[in-house]
Protein backbone atom coordinates (compact mmCIF):
# COMPACT_ATOMS: atom_id res chain seq x y z
CA UNK A 1 0.00 0.00 0.00
CA UNK A 2 2.86 2.36 0.90
CA UNK A 3 4.52 1.63 -2.46
CA UNK A 4 1.30 2.53 -4.28
CA UNK A 5 1.05 5.84 -2.38
CA UNK A 6 4.70 6.71 -3.11
CA UNK A 7 4.24 5.79 -6.76
CA UNK A 8 1.13 7.98 -6.92
CA UNK A 9 3.01 10.87 -5.32
CA UNK A 10 5.83 10.56 -7.86
CA UNK A 11 3.36 10.48 -10.75
CA UNK A 12 1.51 13.50 -9.35
CA UNK A 13 4.80 15.37 -8.88
CA UNK A 14 5.85 14.52 -12.46
CA UNK A 15 2.53 15.69 -13.89
CA UNK A 16 2.62 18.87 -11.80
CA UNK A 17 6.14 19.64 -12.98
CA UNK A 18 5.12 19.01 -16.59
CA UNK A 19 2.14 21.34 -16.16
CA UNK A 20 4.36 24.07 -14.72
CA UNK A 21 6.85 23.67 -17.55
CA UNK A 22 4.16 24.11 -20.18
CA UNK A 23 3.44 27.60 -18.84
CA UNK A 24 1.91 30.14 -21.15
CA UNK A 25 1.18 33.76 -20.30
CA UNK A 26 -0.86 34.99 -23.28
CA UNK A 27 -4.41 33.99 -24.14
CA UNK A 28 -5.52 32.71 -27.53
CA UNK A 29 -7.32 36.02 -28.08
CA UNK A 30 -3.98 37.84 -27.92
CA UNK A 31 -2.83 36.12 -31.10
CA UNK A 32 -5.64 37.79 -33.11
CA UNK A 33 -5.89 34.71 -35.35
CA UNK A 34 -9.38 35.48 -36.66
CA UNK A 35 -8.54 39.11 -37.43
CA UNK A 36 -5.33 37.99 -39.17
CA UNK A 37 -7.24 35.58 -41.42
CA UNK A 38 -9.61 38.33 -42.63
CA UNK A 39 -6.88 39.54 -45.02
CA UNK A 40 -7.88 36.71 -47.38
CA UNK A 41 -11.31 38.30 -47.75
CA UNK A 42 -9.86 41.20 -49.76
CA UNK A 43 -10.22 40.81 -53.56
CA UNK A 44 -6.54 41.64 -54.05
CA UNK A 45 -5.24 38.62 -52.10
CA UNK A 46 -8.05 36.33 -53.26
CA UNK A 47 -7.10 36.56 -56.93
CA UNK A 48 -3.34 36.33 -56.29
CA UNK A 49 -1.57 33.01 -56.92
CA UNK A 50 1.72 32.76 -54.96
CA UNK A 51 3.37 30.45 -57.52
CA UNK A 52 2.78 32.85 -60.42
CA UNK A 53 3.73 35.88 -58.33
CA UNK A 54 7.05 34.32 -57.30
CA UNK A 55 7.97 33.66 -60.94
CA UNK A 56 7.15 37.28 -61.78
CA UNK A 57 9.17 38.63 -58.85
CA UNK A 58 12.17 36.44 -59.64
CA UNK A 59 12.06 37.42 -63.33
CA UNK A 60 11.91 41.12 -62.43
CA UNK A 61 14.95 40.83 -60.19
CA UNK A 62 16.94 38.86 -62.78
CA UNK A 63 16.16 41.35 -65.56
CA UNK A 64 15.84 44.72 -63.79
CA UNK A 65 17.78 44.06 -60.58
CA UNK A 66 14.92 45.11 -58.31
CA UNK A 67 11.55 44.00 -56.98
CA UNK A 68 8.59 45.98 -55.73
CA UNK A 69 8.08 46.13 -51.96
CA UNK A 70 4.30 45.91 -52.28
CA UNK A 71 4.59 42.84 -54.53
CA UNK A 72 6.76 41.15 -51.90
CA UNK A 73 4.19 42.10 -49.27
CA UNK A 74 1.39 40.51 -51.31
CA UNK A 75 3.47 37.35 -51.76
CA UNK A 76 4.28 37.12 -48.03
CA UNK A 77 0.61 37.59 -47.11
CA UNK A 78 -0.74 34.96 -49.52
CA UNK A 79 1.57 31.98 -48.89
CA UNK A 80 0.35 29.40 -46.36
CA UNK A 81 1.79 25.94 -47.11
CA UNK A 82 5.24 24.79 -45.96
CA UNK A 83 6.65 24.39 -49.48
CA UNK A 84 7.11 28.16 -49.97
CA UNK A 85 9.99 28.58 -47.49
CA UNK A 86 12.87 28.79 -49.98
CA UNK A 87 10.87 31.07 -52.27
CA UNK A 88 10.06 33.45 -49.41
CA UNK A 89 13.66 33.69 -48.20
CA UNK A 90 14.91 34.26 -51.75
CA UNK A 91 12.37 37.03 -52.36
CA UNK A 92 13.36 38.72 -49.09
CA UNK A 93 17.04 38.58 -50.03
CA UNK A 94 16.31 40.07 -53.45
CA UNK A 95 14.26 42.87 -51.90
CA UNK A 96 17.05 43.58 -49.44
CA UNK A 97 19.54 43.94 -52.32
CA UNK A 98 17.45 46.59 -54.08
CA UNK A 99 16.65 50.21 -53.24
CA UNK A 100 13.02 49.19 -52.71
CA UNK A 101 13.96 47.73 -49.31
CA UNK A 102 13.39 51.19 -47.78
CA UNK A 103 9.72 50.92 -48.82
CA UNK A 104 9.11 47.58 -47.07
CA UNK A 105 5.60 47.56 -45.60
CA UNK A 106 5.03 46.87 -41.90
CA UNK A 107 2.69 44.02 -42.81
CA UNK A 108 5.55 42.25 -44.62
CA UNK A 109 7.54 41.79 -41.39
CA UNK A 110 4.46 40.51 -39.59
CA UNK A 111 3.42 38.15 -42.40
CA UNK A 112 6.90 36.59 -42.70
CA UNK A 113 7.08 35.93 -38.96
CA UNK A 114 3.55 34.49 -38.88
CA UNK A 115 4.30 32.17 -41.80
CA UNK A 116 7.53 30.81 -40.30
CA UNK A 117 5.95 30.37 -36.87
CA UNK A 118 2.78 28.66 -38.09
CA UNK A 119 4.82 26.18 -40.15
CA UNK A 120 7.24 25.35 -37.28
CA UNK A 121 10.33 26.78 -38.99
CA UNK A 122 11.95 27.68 -35.66
CA UNK A 123 15.59 27.56 -36.78
CA UNK A 124 14.88 29.46 -39.99
CA UNK A 125 12.85 32.03 -38.07
CA UNK A 126 15.52 32.80 -35.48
CA UNK A 127 18.23 32.88 -38.15
CA UNK A 128 16.16 35.28 -40.25
CA UNK A 129 15.51 37.61 -37.31
CA UNK A 130 19.19 37.70 -36.33
CA UNK A 131 20.42 38.16 -39.92
CA UNK A 132 18.85 41.59 -40.39
CA UNK A 133 21.37 42.62 -43.03
CA UNK A 134 20.35 39.79 -45.37
CA UNK A 135 16.61 39.59 -44.77
CA UNK A 136 15.65 42.89 -43.12
CA UNK A 137 12.87 41.48 -40.92
CA UNK A 138 12.10 43.45 -37.75
CA UNK A 139 9.28 42.15 -35.50
CA UNK A 140 6.60 44.36 -33.96
CA UNK A 141 5.67 44.05 -30.28
CA UNK A 142 2.84 41.60 -30.88
CA UNK A 143 5.19 39.35 -32.88
CA UNK A 144 7.83 39.48 -30.13
CA UNK A 145 5.28 38.50 -27.52
CA UNK A 146 3.64 35.71 -29.52
CA UNK A 147 7.03 34.20 -30.40
CA UNK A 148 8.39 34.24 -26.86
CA UNK A 149 5.13 32.94 -25.38
CA UNK A 150 5.01 30.10 -27.94
CA UNK A 151 8.58 28.98 -27.29
CA UNK A 152 8.17 29.27 -23.52
CA UNK A 153 5.11 27.02 -23.77
CA UNK A 154 7.21 24.51 -25.76
CA UNK A 155 10.03 24.67 -23.15
CA UNK A 156 12.28 25.98 -25.94
CA UNK A 157 13.87 28.67 -23.81
CA UNK A 158 16.86 29.03 -26.14
CA UNK A 159 14.61 30.15 -29.02
CA UNK A 160 12.64 32.37 -26.63
CA UNK A 161 15.90 34.01 -25.52
CA UNK A 162 17.02 34.46 -29.14
CA UNK A 163 13.85 36.48 -29.67
CA UNK A 164 14.14 38.18 -26.27
CA UNK A 165 17.52 39.76 -27.03
CA UNK A 166 16.22 41.52 -30.16
CA UNK A 167 14.35 44.37 -28.36
CA UNK A 168 17.60 45.12 -26.51
CA UNK A 169 19.46 45.44 -29.81
CA UNK A 170 16.80 47.92 -30.97
CA UNK A 171 16.88 49.63 -27.52
CA UNK A 172 13.11 49.16 -27.33
CA UNK A 173 11.35 49.24 -23.95
CA UNK A 174 7.96 50.56 -25.10
CA UNK A 175 5.89 47.41 -24.53
CA UNK A 176 5.67 46.09 -20.93
CA UNK A 177 4.81 42.53 -22.05
CA UNK A 178 7.84 42.40 -24.36
CA UNK A 179 10.11 43.66 -21.59
CA UNK A 180 8.79 41.17 -19.04
CA UNK A 181 8.90 38.19 -21.40
CA UNK A 182 12.46 39.08 -22.44
CA UNK A 183 13.62 38.96 -18.82
CA UNK A 184 11.77 35.70 -18.15
CA UNK A 185 13.03 34.01 -21.34
CA UNK A 186 16.65 34.97 -20.65
CA UNK A 187 16.40 33.82 -17.03
CA UNK A 188 14.95 30.42 -18.01
CA UNK A 189 17.50 29.98 -20.80
CA UNK A 190 20.36 30.40 -18.30
CA UNK A 191 19.13 27.29 -16.48
CA UNK A 192 20.49 25.31 -19.45
CA UNK A 193 22.80 27.62 -21.45
CA UNK A 194 24.20 24.81 -23.60
CA UNK A 195 21.02 24.90 -25.73
CA UNK A 196 22.28 28.06 -27.46
CA UNK A 197 25.91 27.96 -28.46
CA UNK A 198 28.07 30.61 -30.05
CA UNK A 199 28.18 30.13 -33.85
CA UNK A 200 31.48 28.54 -34.95
CA UNK A 201 34.06 30.66 -36.70
CA UNK A 202 34.16 30.09 -40.48
CA UNK A 203 37.04 27.82 -41.49
CA UNK A 204 38.92 28.59 -44.70
CA UNK A 205 39.75 25.23 -46.32
CA UNK A 206 41.25 26.73 -49.48
CA UNK A 207 44.92 25.87 -49.94
CA UNK A 208 45.64 28.61 -52.46
CA UNK A 209 46.62 32.06 -51.24
CA UNK A 210 44.44 34.60 -53.02
CA UNK A 211 45.62 38.20 -53.08
CA UNK A 212 43.20 40.98 -53.91
CA UNK A 213 44.20 44.56 -54.70
CA UNK A 214 42.17 47.00 -52.59
CA UNK A 215 42.18 50.78 -52.42
CA UNK A 216 42.57 50.81 -48.63
CA UNK A 217 42.34 48.51 -45.61
CA UNK A 218 39.56 49.06 -43.10
CA UNK A 219 40.64 48.75 -39.48
CA UNK A 220 38.72 46.08 -37.55
CA UNK A 221 35.94 47.59 -35.42
CA UNK A 222 33.74 46.03 -32.75
CA UNK A 223 30.72 48.11 -31.72
CA UNK A 224 29.92 45.97 -28.64
CA UNK A 225 26.25 45.92 -29.65
CA UNK A 226 25.20 44.70 -33.09
CA UNK A 227 28.50 42.82 -33.43
CA UNK A 228 27.78 40.65 -30.38
CA UNK A 229 27.47 36.95 -31.24
CA UNK A 230 28.21 35.17 -27.95
CA UNK A 231 24.87 34.12 -26.37
CA UNK A 232 26.21 34.91 -22.89
CA UNK A 233 27.01 38.48 -23.92
CA UNK A 234 23.66 38.96 -25.67
CA UNK A 235 21.64 37.55 -22.78
CA UNK A 236 23.74 39.43 -20.23
CA UNK A 237 23.30 42.75 -22.00
CA UNK A 238 19.56 42.08 -22.33
CA UNK A 239 19.21 41.40 -18.59
CA UNK A 240 21.19 44.55 -17.79
CA UNK A 241 19.21 46.67 -20.26
CA UNK A 242 15.74 45.44 -19.31
CA UNK A 243 16.62 45.32 -15.60
CA UNK A 244 17.70 48.95 -15.69
CA UNK A 245 14.40 49.89 -17.34
CA UNK A 246 12.36 47.85 -14.82
CA UNK A 247 13.91 49.12 -11.59
CA UNK A 248 13.11 47.86 -8.11
CA UNK A 249 14.66 44.83 -6.45
CA UNK A 250 13.79 42.60 -9.41
CA UNK A 251 15.25 45.03 -11.94
CA UNK A 252 18.42 45.49 -9.89
CA UNK A 253 18.84 41.72 -9.60
CA UNK A 254 18.55 41.24 -13.36
CA UNK A 255 20.82 44.22 -14.03
CA UNK A 256 23.56 42.93 -11.72
CA UNK A 257 23.43 39.42 -13.13
CA UNK A 258 23.42 40.74 -16.68
CA UNK A 259 26.46 42.98 -16.21
CA UNK A 260 28.47 40.11 -14.71
CA UNK A 261 27.46 37.76 -17.55
CA UNK A 262 28.37 40.53 -19.98
CA UNK A 263 31.76 40.89 -18.20
CA UNK A 264 31.19 44.57 -17.44
CA UNK A 265 32.73 44.25 -13.99
CA UNK A 266 33.52 47.95 -13.61
CA UNK A 267 29.91 48.98 -14.24
CA UNK A 268 28.66 46.27 -11.88
CA UNK A 269 31.10 47.42 -9.19
CA UNK A 270 29.89 51.02 -9.42
CA UNK A 271 26.26 49.86 -9.18
CA UNK A 272 26.87 47.68 -6.12
CA UNK A 273 28.71 50.51 -4.35
CA UNK A 274 25.86 52.87 -5.19
CA UNK A 275 23.29 50.42 -3.80
CA UNK A 276 25.30 49.79 -0.63
CA UNK A 277 25.47 53.52 0.06
CA UNK A 278 21.89 54.41 -0.90
CA UNK A 279 19.67 51.41 -0.07
CA UNK A 280 18.97 49.70 3.23
CA UNK A 281 16.66 46.76 2.46
CA UNK A 282 15.44 44.59 -0.42
CA UNK A 283 18.43 45.60 -2.51
CA UNK A 284 18.43 42.49 -4.71
CA UNK A 285 17.08 38.94 -4.56
CA UNK A 286 19.22 36.57 -2.52
CA UNK A 287 18.74 33.89 -5.18
CA UNK A 288 20.47 35.99 -7.82
CA UNK A 289 23.64 36.15 -5.71
CA UNK A 290 23.70 32.36 -5.59
CA UNK A 291 23.23 32.20 -9.37
CA UNK A 292 26.07 34.70 -9.88
CA UNK A 293 28.31 32.71 -7.54
CA UNK A 294 27.55 29.54 -9.50
CA UNK A 295 28.39 31.29 -12.77
CA UNK A 296 31.65 32.69 -11.38
CA UNK A 297 32.92 29.16 -10.78
CA UNK A 298 33.64 29.03 -14.53
CA UNK A 299 35.68 32.26 -14.51
CA UNK A 300 39.30 31.43 -15.37
CA UNK A 301 42.38 33.02 -13.88
CA UNK A 302 42.89 35.28 -16.90
CA UNK A 303 39.32 36.61 -16.63
CA UNK A 304 39.64 37.27 -12.88
CA UNK A 305 40.92 40.84 -13.24
CA UNK A 306 41.42 43.29 -10.40
CA UNK A 307 37.98 44.79 -11.16
CA UNK A 308 36.43 41.32 -10.87
CA UNK A 309 38.11 40.72 -7.50
CA UNK A 310 36.97 44.12 -6.21
CA UNK A 311 33.45 43.32 -7.36
CA UNK A 312 33.48 39.98 -5.52
CA UNK A 313 34.55 41.68 -2.29
CA UNK A 314 31.68 44.16 -2.65
CA UNK A 315 29.32 41.24 -3.35
CA UNK A 316 30.34 39.71 -0.01
CA UNK A 317 29.30 42.97 1.66
CA UNK A 318 26.04 42.92 -0.30
CA UNK A 319 25.22 39.45 1.07
CA UNK A 320 25.23 40.88 4.60
CA UNK A 321 22.52 43.42 3.74
CA UNK A 322 18.75 42.92 3.83
CA UNK A 323 17.85 40.95 0.70
CA UNK A 324 14.64 39.61 -0.85
CA UNK A 325 14.09 36.00 0.14
CA UNK A 326 11.34 35.23 -2.39
CA UNK A 327 11.81 33.07 -5.48
CA UNK A 328 13.35 34.97 -8.40
CA UNK A 329 11.50 32.83 -10.96
CA UNK A 330 8.14 33.48 -9.31
CA UNK A 331 8.90 37.20 -9.21
CA UNK A 332 9.65 37.19 -12.95
CA UNK A 333 6.46 35.23 -13.62
CA UNK A 334 4.40 37.71 -11.58
CA UNK A 335 6.07 40.55 -13.48
CA UNK A 336 4.89 39.01 -16.76
CA UNK A 337 1.37 38.47 -15.40
CA UNK A 338 1.12 42.10 -14.26
CA UNK A 339 2.32 43.32 -17.65
CA UNK A 340 -0.18 41.09 -19.47
CA UNK A 341 -3.03 42.26 -17.25
CA UNK A 342 -2.12 45.88 -17.95
CA UNK A 343 -1.29 45.70 -21.67
CA UNK A 344 -3.27 42.73 -23.08
CA UNK A 345 -6.41 44.53 -24.28
CA UNK A 346 -4.45 47.57 -25.50
CA UNK A 347 -2.22 45.41 -27.74
CA UNK A 348 -5.16 43.42 -29.13
CA UNK A 349 -7.22 46.50 -30.03
CA UNK A 350 -4.22 48.23 -31.61
CA UNK A 351 -3.31 45.15 -33.64
CA UNK A 352 -6.85 44.69 -35.00
CA UNK A 353 -6.76 48.32 -36.14
CA UNK A 354 -3.35 47.75 -37.73
CA UNK A 355 -4.65 44.81 -39.77
CA UNK A 356 -7.36 47.03 -41.28
CA UNK A 357 -4.86 49.85 -41.92
CA UNK A 358 -2.36 47.47 -43.53
CA UNK A 359 -5.00 46.27 -46.01
CA UNK A 360 -5.83 49.86 -46.99
CA UNK A 361 -2.15 50.77 -47.23
CA UNK A 362 -1.47 47.79 -49.49
CA UNK A 363 -4.29 48.83 -51.84
CA UNK A 364 -3.11 52.44 -51.81
CA UNK A 365 0.54 51.64 -52.54
CA UNK A 366 -0.42 49.15 -55.26
CA UNK A 367 -2.71 51.67 -56.98
CA UNK A 368 0.06 54.26 -56.84
CA UNK A 369 2.48 51.75 -58.38
CA UNK A 370 0.00 50.92 -61.16
CA UNK A 371 -0.47 54.64 -61.88
CA UNK A 372 3.30 55.10 -62.09
CA UNK A 373 3.63 52.13 -64.48
CA UNK A 374 0.85 53.54 -66.68
CA UNK A 375 2.55 56.95 -66.66
CA UNK A 376 5.89 55.44 -67.69
CA UNK A 377 4.18 53.48 -70.49
CA UNK A 378 2.49 56.65 -71.79
CA UNK A 379 5.79 58.54 -71.68
CA UNK A 380 7.45 55.75 -73.64
CA UNK A 381 4.67 55.85 -76.25
CA UNK A 382 4.97 59.66 -76.52
CA UNK A 383 8.75 59.46 -76.97
CA UNK A 384 8.35 56.82 -79.69
CA UNK A 385 5.76 58.99 -81.44
CA UNK A 386 8.01 62.06 -81.21
CA UNK A 387 10.93 60.13 -82.69
CA UNK A 388 8.73 58.84 -85.51
CA UNK A 389 7.45 62.36 -86.28
CA UNK A 390 11.00 63.78 -86.27
CA UNK A 391 12.11 61.16 -88.81
CA UNK A 392 9.06 61.89 -90.96
CA UNK A 393 9.79 65.61 -90.77
CA UNK A 394 13.37 65.04 -91.93
CA UNK A 395 12.14 63.08 -94.95
CA UNK A 396 9.50 65.64 -95.90
CA UNK A 397 11.81 68.67 -95.45
CA UNK A 398 15.00 67.08 -96.80
CA UNK A 399 15.36 69.32 -99.86
CA UNK A 400 14.51 72.45 -97.88
CA UNK A 401 17.24 71.72 -95.29
CA UNK A 402 19.74 69.96 -97.56
CA UNK A 403 22.59 72.39 -96.84
CA UNK A 404 22.11 72.18 -93.05
CA UNK A 405 22.04 68.39 -93.20
CA UNK A 406 25.28 68.28 -95.23
CA UNK A 407 26.98 70.63 -92.72
CA UNK A 408 25.83 68.40 -89.87
CA UNK A 409 27.22 65.33 -91.67
CA UNK A 410 30.57 67.06 -92.21
CA UNK A 411 30.67 68.05 -88.55
CA UNK A 412 30.07 64.46 -87.44
CA UNK A 413 32.74 63.16 -89.84
CA UNK A 414 35.24 65.66 -88.42
CA UNK A 415 34.45 64.52 -84.89
CA UNK A 416 34.89 60.86 -85.84
CA UNK A 417 38.21 61.65 -87.55
CA UNK A 418 39.50 63.52 -84.49
CA UNK A 419 38.46 60.62 -82.26
CA UNK A 420 40.25 58.11 -84.51
CA UNK A 421 43.44 60.21 -84.47
CA UNK A 422 43.29 60.31 -80.67
CA UNK A 423 42.94 56.51 -80.51
CA UNK A 424 45.81 55.92 -82.95
CA UNK A 425 48.14 57.96 -80.73
CA UNK A 426 47.66 55.39 -77.96
CA UNK A 427 50.39 52.72 -77.53
CA UNK A 428 49.82 49.54 -79.58
CA UNK A 429 46.58 50.97 -80.95
CA UNK A 430 46.99 49.48 -84.45
CA UNK A 431 47.58 45.98 -83.06
CA UNK A 432 44.45 46.20 -80.93
CA UNK A 433 42.35 47.50 -83.83
CA UNK A 434 43.48 44.64 -86.09
CA UNK A 435 42.62 42.16 -83.34
CA UNK A 436 39.12 43.65 -83.06
CA UNK A 437 38.67 43.41 -86.85
CA UNK A 438 39.69 39.75 -86.78
CA UNK A 439 37.20 39.05 -84.00
CA UNK A 440 34.40 40.67 -86.01
CA UNK A 441 35.31 38.67 -89.12
CA UNK A 442 35.54 35.35 -87.22
CA UNK A 443 32.81 32.88 -88.17
CA UNK A 444 32.33 30.02 -85.69
CA UNK A 445 32.34 26.53 -87.26
CA UNK A 446 29.09 24.63 -87.60
CA UNK A 447 28.73 21.59 -85.38
From TrEMBL:
GO cellular component annotations of the record: mitochondrion; ribosome
Pfam families in the cross-refs: MRP-S27 (PF10037)
Chief site of localization: mitochondrion
UniProt KW keywords: Coiled coil, Ribonucleoprotein, Ribosomal protein
InterPro entries (UniProt xref): mS27/PTCD2, Ribosomal_mS27
Location of the protein in the cell: Mitochondrion
Domain of life: Eukaryota
Coiled coil: 375-422
UniProt-recorded name of the protein: 28S ribosomal protein S27, mitochondrial
Organism: Ceratina calcarata
